[in-house]
Design brief:
By secondary structure, the chain is of the alpha/beta class. It folds into 2 domains: about 210 residues, 3-Layer(aba) Sandwich (Aspartate Aminotransferase, domain 2); about 140 residues, Aspartate Aminotransferase, domain 1. Helices cover about 40% and strands about 15% of the residues. It has a 7-stranded mixed β-sheet with strand order 1-7-6-5-4-2-3, with helices on both faces. α3 runs parallel beside α10, α6 runs parallel beside α7 and α13 crosses α15. It is globular, with a radius of gyration of 23 Å.
Length: about 400
């Protein structure tokens, strides 16, 4: 196919549509991955297009099936996770949904951590339950009970978080992996809070890791995205599901995540350092009942965190309970903040606070929240990259108001 980029033979309206489009390949390589905002791709011969539509490697036909910008992001995350491959999605919940959907059918069972993200609990209870795939929720830290449940229920999938949301309990993923192998279950781990920098899931034998890329991978609060990292074979299976349900990530969003990944190591190192300082300060504050941070010796998962996470890097999330905490007190605290932003996300360059009963775990009933330990006075803090003295000063001012 010979392409005249000027198309001088065409009339004005036709030239406006076609001139400059579909240039010949050039002999340079761009330093940064370009954004390919095209919905479809053409080839000089139909045989090549047929291969692309059949899912051939490195060929593209339609962006719902795959896109070069998206592939670059997937390669980056697979490398970080030390997995063979990765697949991008429109959100973290889309990644969780596809990871489960690919591996269960009616009659299978799921075993899930009791204090997993509220939206994931809703997905399991309200969607997969109606598909004939019931979930049993367990204390994922109680490995004896987990082993007993696996023996009796024979779950097809076991689902947990590396660091739980919002109580920051660290799962003994290595021991859970061994149980899954013993009982023939697929281990899916939400690695959003830990990031691949603190816990590369492939290194630890996790079958599928999922992320809300909106958080630390993107890191700047300007994109909604998700990803799953796994083997080549499972990636192919998930992509078939993804093509059918249409939850693929777009090229602009993929590029934003890819850009964010470039500075993630710097951001996460700073955020972890800040979080340690802030958690230490919070644990001595007289208006707080309890501080949840895996780096504190009194945290239930401290020893597991020391074993599985890098030295002095216990994540950048801190949760705390107000004394005699109520919704009114929690809201007054949040209203009094001047720099820390009350927002329903995390992993941003900004420090952010969230009230779990109002947002991340809103879908749970008060009884369900109480069961997993989410009190009316619980605040979740995502520590940003600001100067830690400024974060502490803002928290102190707000605590003085309640």
């Amino acid at each position: 196919m010979t392409i005249d980029r000027q198309r001088r033979d065409l009339k004005g309206p036709s030239r406006a549509v076609h001139a400059g489009e579909r240039p010949e390949p050039r002999d340079f390589i761009p330093v940064t991955t370009p954004i390919y905002p095209t919905s479809s791709f053409v080839y000089r011969d139909l045989e090549r297009m047929d291969e692309a539509l059949g899912g051939g490697d490195g060929v593209y036909a339609y962006t719902r099936y795959g896109n070069p910008t998206l592939e670059a992001m997937e390669i980056s995350i697979a490398g970080l996770e030390e997995q063979e491959a990765a697949l991008g999605f429109g959100s973290g919940m889309a990644a969780v949904n596809a990871a489960i959907l690919t591996n269960v059918q009616s009659g299978d069972r799921i075993l899930a951590s009791r204090d997993i993200y509220g939206a994931t609990t809703s997905l399991l209870s309200n969607v997969f339950m109606t598909l004939g795939v019931p979930t049993t929720f367990v204390d994922i830290l109680d490995l004896e009970d987990v082993a007993a449940k696996m023996e009796s229920l024979k779950p097809r999938v076991v689902l947990c978080e590396t660091i739980s949301n919002p109580l920051l309990r660290v799962t003994a993923v290595d021991k859970l992996r061994d149980l899954c192998r013993e009982h023939g279950a697929i281990l899916i781990v939400d690695n959003t809070f830990a990031t691949p920098l603190l816990f590369p899931t492939g290194k630890h034998g996790v079958d599928i890791s999922v992320h809300s890329s909106t958080k630390y991978l993107g890191g700047h609060g300007d994109v909604t995205a998700g990803v799953a990292a796994t083997s080549h074979e499972r990636r192919t299976e998930m992509n078939e599901i993804n093509k059918a349900i249409g939850s693929l990530l777009g090229p602009f969003e993929a590029w934003l995540v890819l850009r964010g990944i470039k500075t993630m190591a710097l951001r996460v190192e700073k955020q972890c350092r800040n979080a340690a300082i802030i958690a230490d300060w919070l644990q001595h504050h007289p208006k707080l009942q309890w501080v949840y941070y895996p780096g504190l010796p009194n945290h239930k998962s401290h020893e597991t965190a020391k074993r599985l996470l890098p030295d002095d890097q216990f994540g950048a999330m801190v949760s705390f309970e107000l004394k005699d905490g109520t919704q009114e007190k929690a809201w007054e605290f949040m209203r009094s903040l001047q720099m820390v932003v009350p927002a329903t996300t995390l992993g941003d360059v900004h420090s952010l606070v969230l009230y779990p009963p109002m947002s991340s775990h809103r879908a749970l009933s008060p009884e369900q929240r109480q069961e997993v330990g989410i009190s009316d006075g619980l605040i979740r803090l995502s520590v940003g990259i600001e100067d830690p003295t400024d974060i502490v000063a803002d928290l102190e001012r707000a605590l003085d108001r309640i």
